[in-house]
Amino acid sequence: MTQLAAPWLSAPPTRAVMAALAAGGGQALFVGGCVRNALIGAEVTDIDIATDARPEEVTRLAEAAGLKTVPTGIDHGTVTVIASGVPHEVTTFRRDVETDGRRAVVQYATDVAEDARRRDFTMNALYAEPGGQVLDPLGQGLSDLAARRVRFIEDASARIAEDYLRILRFFRFHAWFGGADVDAEALDAIARGQEGLAQLPAERIGAEVTKLLTAPDPAPSVASMAAVGVLARVLPGADPRALAPLVALEADAGAAPGAIRRLAAIGGDPARLRLSRKGARQLAGLTDWIGQPAGIAEIGYRDGAEMAVDTALLRAALAGQPLNPDAVEAASKGAGAQFPVSAADLDPALEGAEIGAALAALERRWIASDFTLTRAALLAGGEG
Q: Got the DSSP string for 234-289?
């Protein structure tokens, strides 16, 4: 018997939700990520509950216990129950009766094994009773999780055809939870079913790729994506060879994983990812700076220390070289530098474009001096 030992099991808000559901006399079980992560000691951020109670009954029981409910996914059997400000997604046991690769028509079920069978990976089909006893209805989740084996439930091709986003989820889950080996049956099914990715909206693709790239080391998973042709479909022209060196350089520099930085290392056309405006700007900036001769200090001055350090990491990874030990200091120095000359300091006879050109020339001299030339020296045309 496997038993969970996790603090959230005994947290008052969670206990209140489970007590409210138990008052109906049915079954309520923790499911999915909260169980999986608790078993491997990973952080639990969301608590999902599966129950044999119908959504209207969940709502009635929760509100009778003084808890707030939100019908977040009522068409698919999900009600969010909020206790002391903590949301818990409560979903009725269900089974798929019709799928089209993007959406499913579901019917409610009363058997936890039916509910487990419609999920994606064996390690996500784990449940736990209110007291923490773990249930493995399909008999594979616990062993696969222990082996860090990401595997589709039953027939891989069938699971993929139900929802083609599972192709990208497979690589994301392997990056976060998988071991050294990638499931061969899964890769074969993905290779045969990847044309279905064309059905997916760009926002969903971008979200999955971003989550994958924030894993501690996504390089093996991305390499597998490239090997079966998936990477080329979602990021045409991408080359993953610089990703592993970048991950190693990040570790040496103490840099946190950065999805956009890693995306810049892979390259390719990000149109199918539909990044946020901020992410798109960051990616464009990095891509531009990588190919320019500007020094790291200048990049820090013009675009901030974070952009400068990221550029230094990327240049080193792409060149197959170690990070310049002075890069972080140079980025910080540049980011803190203040150009000492303004338009008001220039010859009053200058007009229009002449002012901009004069300022730009002085700024170039100042940057070339490693930001040491004073205002007086710059205006006098001297070197100190």
A: HSTT--GGGHHHHHHHHHHHTPPP-HHHHHHHH-S-GGGG---HHHHHHHHHHHHH
Handedness of CA 181, 168, 166, 141 (dihedral sign): positive
**Distance, C-alpha 144 to centroid of its chain:** 23
Q: Is 125 in contact with 142 (CB distance < 8 Å)?
A: no
Taking the alpha carbons of 222, 226, 232, 238 in that order, is the dihedral positive or negative? positive
Mean pLDDT (the chain, rounded): 95
* Tens of pLDDT, residues 127-174: 999 999 999 999 999 999 999 999 999 999 999 999 999 999 999 999
Q: Where in the chain is the domain with CATH 3.30.460.10?
A: 1-147
pTM confidence score: 0.92
Q: Match 């799928």 to its residue by tokens.
A: 99
Distance CA 123, CA 33 (A): 9
CB 299 within 8 A of CB 289: yes
Cβ partners under 8 Å of residue 88, min gap 6: 13, 14, 17, 47, 48, 49, 80, 81, 82
Distance between CA atoms of 310 and 265, rounded to whole angstroms?
A: 10
What is the Cα Rg of the chain in Å? Answer: 27
CA angle 358, 362, 368 (to 5 degrees): 150
Q: State the pLDDT at residue 207.
A: 96
Q: What is the pLDDT of residue 383?
A: 56
Percent of the chain with pLDDT strictly greater than 70: 97
Which fold is adopted by the domain 1-147? Beta Polymerase; domain 2 (3.30.460)
Matching residue, tokens 């946190």: 256
- Cα angle for residues 253, 326, 334 (degrees, 5° grid): 105
189: exposed, middle or buried (C-beta count within 10 Å: 0-12, 13-18, 19+)? buried
Terminal Cα-to-Cα distance of the chain (whole angstroms): 77
